[in-house]
Amino acid sequence: MSSRASLSATNLAVHHHYNCDLYLHNVYHRPEIKNSSTSQELSELTGARFKRGIDWESYLFTWLDRQHLLLTVPSSPLDAAVLYENIQADTRDHFFIAGLSFLPPQEMLDERFHGAGKNSVKFGLAKPDLLEIFRTQDGIKWKVIDAKVSSRVKTSHHVQIYFYTMCLVYILPRDSFYPEGSAAIWLPPSEGFDKSPPSLDDLKSIENTLLASSLEQFFFEKLPDIIAAPIKDIEWHYNPQCRGCPYEQECKMNVLVKGELGSMPNISLEDARLLKGLLRVSSNGVERDVSARPLTDIEDLHKLIAEPTRLEELTLQFPSMVKRCKRILALPKKNKQQNSPVVQAARTRSPQVKLQRNLTLPRYEDVAVIMSLVSDYSLASPTIERYVIEVVSHVRLKSIPRISCGSGLDLVPTLSLLITNLIDQQSISSPSLTTQFYVWSASELSALQQHLISTALTSTAHDNDVRVCIGALAQGASLLHTTYQPVLLSGALLSFLTLKGRSRSEHIACLERMGLSTEGSTEELRQRVDQEIRRLQLQSEGGHATTASTDRAELGQMPRVTVLQREVEHLIALPVPGYWDLPECASALLPENSPGVQCPTSDEIMTQYRQDTSETLNKSLEKRNLSIRAVLQDVRRRISDTGHSLLVNTAKVLSSNFMDLCRQEHIRKLFFVQQFEVLTKLGELWRARIEGCPDAPVLEYVRANLGVEGTNTLEHIFRLVSGTLDMPTTDKNTSMYDKIIVLDEDDDLGEDIPVEALFDDLAISGLVFPLSKFVQSKWDALHPTVQKKLWVADILNMEVDGNSTKVVLHAWGRQGVKFIPGCKYRISPRLVDFNTSKTMAALLETDLLWGSAANEGYRAVEDDHRRVPLLQMIADPDSFGHVARADELFRTGDIIQRLFRNLKNIDVDEASSLILKPSQQRAAQKILSHRLSVIWGPPGTGKTYTIALSLLRMFDAQHRLGETGRKIVFVTGMTHAAIDAVRNQLRYLMNCYRAIKSLEAPWLNRIQVEQVSSGSRHTPPPPDSSLVHIYFGTTYQFYNFTKRHSSIRADCVVVDEAGQLGLSSIALVLRAVSTTAQIIIAGDSEQLAPILSAQYPQIKGRPIFGSILDCLMYTSQGQGQPTPPQEEPSDDFSSLNIQELSSSNFVQLTENFRLNADLGDFVSTIYSRAFKPQKVQARQLGRNLKLVENYRLDDFTGIQPDILNSVQTFLLSLSKVMLREPQTVLIPPAHAHLGSLSPTPTSSLDAPPPRAISLALVRLDADSASGDVGYETHVRGEAAVAAGLVAWIRRCAAGDDVFVATPHRVQREAVRSALGRVGVEVWEGERRQKTCRGDETFGMERLRMGEEDEGRVRVDTIERLQGSEASFVICLFTLAKTSTPSSLAELGFLLDRRRLNVAMSRAKTLCVVVASGNVLRPGVGVLKNEEAAKGYAFLRAFEERAWGCEMRVDLDGV
């Protein structure tokens, strides 16, 4: 080893970027190669990015200096005493130090290495960018900050700042310095640091303790092992991430010589580990000829694939692993040829076609437009600087040049002229010409989209050109301008315009936005709009792929701009190791003498751009376009030669139409999201269907039974053969028919397209099945094959029947088409959508209202809300202000509260339920005095109770002040369960009022409560009514109700569980409110938000792509929740005044009636205020849990005895802790709370009460002797532990409800099966809502023994359990222990803080979290996701507060 051998913080960061141990080993032992890679030898692209990073750092330091926040110190290695003197000489309390460098404390680090039993690793000079300094009374607090120019935080960044922090903790003396507890990455503004100054908000901090669990192990255990190991023992894999590594060429040669997995291109590190795992399990138990030459990885894979029987065996043992490996290797569902094109390409060194259909590369176009774009990544905001566009056509084009080139400033006008000329050419051609645009890389497409958006936002010179380009090419707009967009738009327009009483001005506004004439009478205008709607509908029917015509048209969606590199990777396996770009692709596909082979590299192009040789650069880009065209033609030829129709679409006729119906910025975005969500869902369905739904569950038909007595409906009985099937997630009794079923036939990739791919979801997405004769024509218009071979289905029931699962469903299809007993059918989802057109219509109406307000005295500023309620909520919630007579109502509310307190004091028991707690009283007073009130709080704080009683307080106070006219109140929510909860609570509280005989409440008789089940048929309130009409219903039923009765205007709107309701949905209700209406929003910002199918950008201002609550809870600091009032509410309500409540629309409820004190203390860590527990854990819990020792293991069947014994020991130990008896199994929590760690009494005299313990942790160690654990095997082991917990709890607390919360459906089904084997019945129905009284008895469950009223066991996904509660909750958060590290996506899903919070906060008495080590101590890579880091911190907080134990499960016996 060289005497110079050492590692820098940058080396450690680069290792995590490459994720390569070989890099670290080489850079430590071969420093001559490391040191030879200077910045001058960097590639041009890398050098450009490097320069941008230097520029950002320099710009940041300059900005800090101008803000008087920078102290620059000499760059010589740090002397702590000198640094202390510099800081002391500075008078500022907060500033940043730049120029700091130091030598790591090698002696102290060596002690750490030796303590771990490892050899020392030497480190070189460290240079953090900034050290943030805070001067405090306790000393100098410091924090490491590194400036990075990337758009997001990366794992390599975290490694670097943690290393700096770790070293400085040793170097800086504790008597003068102390660490702040976190480190941070300073990112540039998202819009570019040339356009916006740096901001402290762009500091991305992370707690050092979160990084420590993973990085401490890396630094002091894994790192020395890597350095000390022989090079032959170092694991590595050549993959796309290796680009730019100084050892890349060496590794590339090695993979080819050794036939390793890296000889196949684009195999990620995780993919390689999966394939290695597959090879390992395939060799288990197989004897090898020791004299034979060992096979390479490639040959091993080839041999395994050629043995279908062995592969089928592995599929049964490791279904998830094999399924993922098949995708990596491009193996079709039915592998008749018994080979993988990916493996075959590596073996034969020749390209192979992947036999899989493609939706996004056209098999033909009349005109191909090929673009090569050059971006300068050294700029603060990288932009397109040069372009060359080539037009290739099979027909002669007039006035269209073949080659266009220029600077980035000319790109939009050039494209606009080209698009316009092509469209003009189409108009004189018959049939119309089809056109497809092409770029090579995804980065070029991204640059093009960003260039169009940037030009639209910053330039007014080419406004019309921008609109043409966006309409034709922009990713979002071009996707929406498809044959499917008119269906959505026509539905929205039809829904909007069929509302009664539409005015002339509204028709004119619609016509203007549709680009049509606005001349004529009102009737002429109406007819013109109707004609356009019919045209849109006809256009959509004629353009769909699934019309009754046998001519196949577009399937799915063709992108307007095709990324050819992506399509080649999908269709062709290239014999190129690691990764490839255009030059390598052209070289592999094209003949040696082909002109397209001579393709310049990206570095060569960037060098020419840097040298400012425009003529040379243009020629290189023309060569590049020639290569793109040649590759495109070759791919099509190779596919044609296979004899299979893999390219299922042709190009489309070019269009630049851009129908911009909405004008207001926020509404336009919401309008777009509604359409894009539908198209995203359809895109997911199309991608699966084109391959014949390979992952769809397969059912075997058994028989048909006659359904409900008195009907002719047949119930079809199937047996689940493979896959996972789910019951519909709805709390309504409506049959959704949300599945489609087809015969599971072999797919031979011939001309026949899978039946599902021909199905037109949108045509029937809003129809109710079984179809009536009035809409039967919609089905008849579908493709003939669909009518003959496809059924829509509604799952009625699923139950375990012996060793299989029985599935009962209703099916609807063409009469005479029947299921065949014994045949297998695949079942997959379809799009069911009754509401998108309603939401879009409501948004359009809101936009028109905003537009008309400009003519009614409001200032015509584009971002002004103009008193439109939805826009007020988005832009300025404080603008709602106070209600009329707010002071009087406030005082009256205080009088009412005092009245019930006095009644309680004279023993009127019924008054107890009508007294609000302090924070609830603040909420009630807010509702009385403010037009907008946001009541938020954690689970169990009585939000529903508070809004129900506040409504009654409001009616009472208004009556006392003489307001006796008609009032209309709408109460809504996301689910029927949430709506029913408010209704039940309101009725209960009204009965409490009536039960107080001495209380005169004539206003109660004026209240009329109604459920709106069918808005279009519900009776409206009489115009002359003097009643208070309270309507309960979904937002969609209220839309139907107010559409049917257009004169209705609500005086008050209440939204419960608003964290689940999308912002767009509230427009359905707010469109029909009075000008002085009150809006009451209640929910929890830390519960699961609405699920969006697509990813949307973070925009400046309030987040509008989430829930109503997310939007309202946003603050300018981006904290996601409001800053709570500083005043602490008390029981003395005379201290409350309206001025105190006027500072904000928000009130957080702090009293908690569900959670025990320790569980509440834990959950409150993510809220701005701690809870005030109103509930004490039942004292007999410990004694009841101790009853498990009275039962024997043989009292149970169906679970391994060792698992039952471990669970019994766990619960018995937990009971001993509660009863303050000695035990040795559970580890005490690190975070003591409420005396949970108080000493055990030495005398039985005057024994203290039992400990109240609500948090328990099982650290699951599920393993197998073989070392390889398949996901399904792990899930079965996890399910056995959960079933054991439930079975034992049922024995000692039979009267209490038990929930098992699972992140995934497969876990849920495994637990249900395990419970079935134990004989525990799982409840499938919805839990009836309990009455919430709002006092100390609220949520106080009883631990009942031997009573007939048994508690229920419910096993479900966390999303379905939201809003429910149970005495005992078991949360499953484990991942399989395999040689393949858990994917970041899966860990990110489990570590979602809202998901964790929902699961854990369902518990009223005891929450048991079952988690595995790879979840409790995830790799550092998962923490680069800010949301996952929050979730991990939350899980760690649980772990620190829980009594826990290790539990080992032998999966071989499960």
Question: What would you note in describing this structure?
Answer:
This protein is of the alpha/beta class. 40% of the residues lie in helices and 15% in strands. The protein has 49 helices and 35 strands. Strands 1, 2, 3, 4, 5, 6 and 7 form a seven-stranded mixed β-sheet that branches. α10 crosses α13. The protein is globular, with a radius of gyration of 34 Å. The protein starts with 8 loop residues before the first helix and ends with a strand.
Set out the fold topology:
Blueprint: H1 9-18, H2 21-29, H3 31-36, H4 44-66, E1 70-72, H5 80-89, E2 94-98, H6 106-115, E3 130-136, E4 139-147, H7 155-171, E5 177-179, E6 182-186, E7 203-207, H8 208-228, H9 248-258, H10 269-283, H11 297-305, H12 308-317, H13 319-328, H14 341-348, E8 352-353, E9 367-375, E10 384-393, E11 403-407, H15 411-427, E12 435-439, H16 442-458, H17 463-473, H18 475-480, H19 485-497, H20 504-513, H21 522-543, E13 561-563, H22 564-571, E14 572-573, H23 582-589, H24 602-610, H25 614-642, H26 665-689, E15 698-706, E16 714-722, E17 739-743, H27 761-764, H28 776-780, H29 784-789, E18 791-801, E19 804-812, E20 824-829, H30 836-853, H31 869-875, H32 886-905, H33 918-929, E21 932-936, H34 943-960, E22 967-973, H35 976-995, E23 1007-1011, E24 1028-1032, H36 1035-1044, E25 1050-1056, H37 1067-1070, E26 1073-1083, H38 1108-1113, H39 1138-1141, E27 1146-1148, E28 1151-1152, H40 1157-1163, E29 1172-1173, H41 1181-1185, H42 1201-1218, E30 1255-1263, H43 1271-1292, E31 1298-1302, H44 1305-1318, E32 1353-1357, H45 1358-1361, E33 1366-1373, H46 1384-1390, H47 1393-1400, ...
Helix pairs in contact: 1-2, 1-7, 2-8, 7-8, 10-11, 10-13, 11-14, 12-13, 15-17, 16-17, 19-21, 19-30, 20-21, 23-25, 26-30, 32-33, 32-34, 33-34, 34-35, 42-43, 43-44, 47-49
